[in-house]
């Protein structure tokens, strides 16, 4: 018997063959009506205009694995994803709750380790490659380790969202959230007059305020910089963009030096002390005196100043242990342990392959599951069972058997789809969502997120590094439909 094709929740519930908006979700009805009246060639023209403008600005990303190694544009889709105020309220509260617990976990794991003593987290976490013993006993301002966190969310039904993973090291993508919004406002200004879309352009100021808030207590006007590996890094555009938007300096390791338990920046007017470093360099490369001795990207002696309280690093060294996939499994228990609350957002059901029962089940159902390396990221080192060939399945089976503890497995989720403009027209493509949680003076999110879309038909891999694209995410300030044209004209007349 032939298998029925899998059913996926469509964010718009759009029946492309329908002549009426029946069956379209309430928050999309007005947009759907607008979309029906826009010719395909006009949408495609807008897409080409966006591509030209993005290319001029230099918004590029390296698609790893390409032979030419060239920087290229991330595909941008001109059809937005829309979230209601109620949906966003749940996602926002759940993401904040999660990041609060993860920050408490990081403080605990580098201090008293109560969660290990309570038997909730195995002591093997201390052997994780992302656990940095150099951070043990180090007190960081406000006990905040993950100042910027990206929480990856996926949806499987109208009411069900799952947390796919946490990003606490050097999470990227927020520049695309901001630039996608600017582009949509340029391409379709009429929609922003008609929909109550919450703004996101204040993100850089919120970020800067939070970074200043975690400077040492005796510093009244802290100097904040963005530390980048340099122009050859795949996310360099974002580093430069955020520095420019915050009005602070973009520096590389060679621009900084350590003296008398302080970090200084070289300027044309002489050395200037730096108080907070928003670093976009991985732990291994940040200080060659402590980690990778061959690193030319970091600042010699930086960790010593950091440990002694002479500078704040955002995110803190050692945050990687909290976004490791082996830790992910325990986050719901962390929330209960540290906050005394039930998780507002669920984890994807996960098999720990270090456990014999989970390993046996995974090997028996490999063609049905997604298997990920515990310390992998960016869509690399993973197997999507239903899409894998027999040879790929067998090769991965051997890798798992040789080191079961290096992998976890999860069911292949029916990721929601969103109408997307592709060469053939408008078609459903799978999406995820990455809101950015900022921790400093407060813990908050701006009402928007990076929405990644798998541009290939049937693909569940949305990562930009694997060729995925992006969409603008519209969070509605009120759950209302677009006003009538007469009301719009009246409002514009009043404004005039």
TrEMBL record:
Residues 80-454 form the Circularly permuted ATP-grasp type domain. It holds the Pfam family CP_ATPgrasp_2. SUPFAM superfamilies: Glutathione synthetase ATP-binding domain-like. It comes from the Bacteria. This is Circularly permuted ATP-grasp type 2 domain-containing protein. The lineage of its organism: Bacteria, Pseudomonadati, Pseudomonadota, Betaproteobacteria, Nitrosomonadales.
């Amino acid at each position: 018997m032939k298998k029925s094709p899998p059913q996926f929740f469509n964010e718009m519930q759009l029946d492309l063959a329908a002549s009426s908006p029946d069956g379209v979700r309430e928050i999309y009805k007005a947009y759907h009506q607008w979309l029906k009246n826009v010719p395909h060639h006009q949408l495609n023209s807008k897409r080409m205009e966006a591509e030209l403008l993005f290319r001029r600005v230099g918004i590029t990303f390296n698609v790893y694995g390409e032979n030419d190694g060239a920087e290229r544009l991330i595909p941008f889709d001109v059809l937005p994803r829309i979230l209601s105020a109620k949906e966003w309220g749940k996602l926002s509260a759940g993401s904040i709750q999660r990041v609060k617990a993860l920050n408490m976990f990081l403080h605990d794991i580098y201090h008293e380790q109560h969660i290990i003593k309570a038997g909730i987290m195995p002591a093997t976490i201390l052997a994780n490659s992302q656990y940095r013993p150099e951070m043990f006993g180090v007190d960081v301002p406000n006990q905040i380790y993950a100042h910027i966190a990206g929480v990856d969310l996926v949806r499987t039904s109208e009411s069900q969202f799952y947390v796919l993973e946490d990003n606490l090291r050097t999470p990227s993508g927020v520049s695309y959230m901001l630039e996608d919004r600017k582009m949509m406002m340029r391409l379709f200004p009429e929609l922003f007059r008609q929909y109550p879309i919450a703004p996101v352009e204040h993100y850089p100021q919120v970020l800067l305020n939070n970074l200043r808030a975690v400077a040492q207590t005796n510093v009244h006007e802290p100097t904040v910089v963005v530390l980048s590996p340099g122009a050859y890094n795949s996310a360099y555009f974002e580093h430069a963009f955020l520095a420019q938007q915050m009005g602070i300096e973009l520096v590389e390791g060679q621009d900084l030096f350590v003296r008398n338990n302080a970090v200084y920046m070289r300027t044309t007017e002489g050395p200037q002390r730096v108080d907070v470093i928003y670093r976009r360099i991985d732990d291994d490369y940040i200080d060659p005196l402590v980690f990778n001795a061959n690193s030319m990207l970091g600042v010699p002696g930086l960790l010593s100043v950091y440990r002694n309280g002479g500078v704040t690093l955002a995110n803190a060294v050692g945050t990687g242990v909290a976004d490791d996939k082996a830790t992910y499994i325990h986050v719901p228990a962390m929330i209960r342990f540290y906050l005394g609350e039930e998780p507002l957002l669920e984890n994807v059901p996960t098999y720990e392959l270090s456990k014999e029962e989970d390993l046996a089940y995974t090997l028996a159902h490999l063609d049905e599951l997604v298997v990920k390396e515990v310390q992998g990221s960016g869509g690399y080192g993973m197997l999507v069972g239903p899409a894998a060939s027999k040879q790929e399945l067998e090769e991965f089976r051997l890798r798992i058997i040789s080191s079961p503890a290096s992998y976890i497995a999860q069911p292949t989720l029916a990721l929601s789809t969103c109408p997307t403009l592709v060469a053939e027209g408008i078609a459903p493509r799978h999406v995820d969502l990455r809101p950015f949680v900022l921790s400093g003076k407060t813990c908050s999110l701006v009402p928007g997120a990076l929405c990644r879309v798998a541009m290939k038909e049937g693909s569940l891999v949305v990562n930009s590094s694997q060729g995925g694209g992006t969409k603008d995410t519209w969070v509605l300030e009120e759950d209302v439909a677009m006003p009538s044209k007469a009301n719009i004209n009246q409002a514009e007349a009043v404004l005039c």
